[in-house]
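Hi team, as promised in this morning's meeting, here are the two structures we talked about. I've kept the exact order from the run log so nobody has to guess. The first one is mostly here for context; it's the second one we should focus on when we meet again. Sequence first, then the predicted C-alpha cells.
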Amino acid sequence: MVSTKDEELTEALRSVIDPEIGLNIVELGLLRHLDIDEEQDKANITMILTTPFCPYGPQIIEQVRQVGNTVMDGGVTVEIGTELWDPSMMEEGAGGDWGLF
C-alpha cells in the first residue's frame, strides 16, 4: 500500500526538473525508491542521474533535498543509487516529445 506521504512526496518532487532534458525527475524515472518513516516524518530518497557524471547532478540532488524537506518535517536524506539510467525507466508517454517512443 502506498502511503499518503509517499504520494505527497512524489508529487512534490515533480517540481525538480533536469535542466538539460527539461523533464522532471519522476517522469524521467530517476526517483528509484522512497523509504518513509511516518512516525518521525522523515524519508530516505534513493535516486539516480541520467549520466554518472551529470554536470547538473549536485544541483538536482540539492533541489531534491530542499523539496523533500518541505514535505517531510523530520527531513530527508538523498542517496545516489548505482543503477544506470535508461530511457525505458521513463513514465509512460514522457519521452513522446523527444520522439523516443
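And here is the second protein, the one for discussion:
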Amino acid sequence: MKSLGYYAKRLGHGTAEMFKRLPFAFYILTHPFDGFYELKRDPRNHNLPGAVFLFIVLGITSILKRQLTGYLFTEPFAQLNLNIPYELAVAVLPFILFIIANWCFTSLMDGDGKFRDIFTATAYATLPMSICNLIAIPLSNFLTLSESAMYTFIVSFGFVWCYGMVFLGMMITHQYTVKKAIATAILSIIGMAVIAFIVVLVFFLVQQVFGFVVQLYTEVSFRLNE
C-alpha cells in the first residue's frame, strides 16, 4: 500500500508541472493562431489541471471585481449581498455550457477537436477577461465619474478579447473555415439556451417532486398519529 508521502509527492509534482505549462496561455494571447494550433497538435501542451485553474481564476477575479470595485462603478450595497456559488456560476457556467454545446454540435459536423481540446482552448481563452478584471479593480478606485469611459473600455475590451479568443480557439481546434466557425458558434449558443432550459426544467421538476414527497410524508405521519 502506497504511503501518504507518495501521494503528496505525486500531487506536488503534478502541481509543479501544471504551473510550468501555464505560461503557454500567455503565448496564446500574443500568438493566437500559432498558439491554438500548437495546443491542438502537441499533446505536451495539454494542461487540464491548468485549464481548471484558469476557470477558478476567472471566478475569483469576478468575485474580487464585484467586491473591490470602487463605489462609483458598482451598484449601491452590492458588496453586502455576496453569494459566492452564484457569482462563480455566473462567471464560469456560460463557458461550461458553451463547451458542452460546442462538443455536441462539432461531433456531428466533422470537428477535429475532442472534448478535452475544446475545454482546454476555452479555458485558455478566458485569460484576457481575468487580466482585465484585475486591471479594472484598482482603476475603479482612482478614476472619477467623468473618467468612467476608461473603466468601461477596459471591462468591455476584456469581454471582446475573451470571446474573440474563444471563437479563434474553436475555429482552429476544429480546423473550420470562418463561415463554418460562425455557423457552429451560432448553433452552440442555441444549444447553450436549450441545455440551460432543460437543466432549469429538471431542477423545478425535482423540486416539485421533492415537495410532493415531503407533503405526502407529513400528511401520512399526521394521519397515523391521530
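Starting points for discussion:
The chain has a mean pLDDT of 84.
The radius of gyration is 22 Å.
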